[in-house]
């Protein structure tokens, strides 16, 4: 028999799972608490025991989605041996993962609107953006990118990829063309470092 702590955790997981499905399908604004507790098979009291508001529940869902995207990016990138290939593969994996309709709705469309830009950015930086900064720092140390402050470059690239994913979510964009444009942008970043460091000299 499950302990009370296990039952509480199970209830929390169920609330997150069911609300995630509803938020992804209908959007945050169109989902009411009554619909969430009905789908989860719990009372409103049980929901409020775990989350103070619908917004807080959405925050838990968003954190789960962002972590899954970050895990996907890291696993895809880590499968590559070459550091530059790890970087570019990871960036492309982020763009691809972010174009999943359910992910787009929660992470890119409703996320900033519900939580506010500052909180959304903080959550983003704790996930994929942190991995991006780490990858850039490694490439700079290896001489594959010209030496420069990491934070501005990481924010520029993260913003570009988030904007591309959002554009694909809200307009009839072409994923293949967007991936090609991202590849060219990343290649230009490497090309700009040619001659800036001995390790970047090619025979």
Automatic annotation (TrEMBL):
Molecular-function GO terms, alphabetical: DNA-binding transcription factor activity; transcription cis-regulatory region binding
Superkingdom of the organism of origin: Bacteria
Transit peptide is among the record's keywords: no
Transcription regulation in keyword set: yes
Ranges for domain HTH tetR-type: 9-69
Pfam families in alphabetical order: TetR_C_41, TetR_N
Keywords in alphabetical order: DNA-binding, Transcription, Transcription regulation
Ranges of the DNA-binding region feature: 32-51
Protein name in UniProt: TetR/AcrR family transcriptional regulator
Source organism of this protein record: Actinomadura rudentiformis
């Amino acid at each position: 028999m499950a302990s009370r702590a296990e039952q509480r955790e199970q209830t929390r997981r169920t609330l997150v799972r069911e609300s995630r499905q509803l938020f992804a399908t209908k959007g945050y604004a169109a989902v009411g608490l009554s619909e969430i507790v009905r789908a989860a098979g719990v009372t409103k009291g049980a929901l409020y025991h775990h989350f103070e508001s619908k917004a807080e529940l959405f925050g838990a869902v968003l954190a789960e989605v962002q972590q899954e995207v970050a895990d996907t990016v890291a696993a895809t990138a880590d499968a590559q041996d070459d550091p530059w290939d790890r970087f570019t593969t990871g960036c492309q994996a982020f763009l691809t993962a972010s174009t999943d309709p359910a992910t787009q709705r929660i992470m890119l469309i409703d996320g900033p609107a519900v939580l506010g830009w500052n909180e959304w950015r903080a959550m983003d930086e704790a996930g994929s953006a942190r991995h991006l900064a780490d990858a850039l720092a490694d490439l700079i140390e290896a001489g594959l990118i010209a030496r420069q402050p990491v934070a501005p470059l990481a924010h520029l690239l993260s913003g570009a990829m988030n904007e591309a994913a959002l554009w694909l979510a809200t307009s009839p964009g072409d994923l293949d063309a967007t991936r090609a444009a991202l590849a060219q942008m990343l290649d230009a970043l490497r090309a700009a470092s040619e001659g800036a460091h001995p390790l970047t000299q090619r025979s």
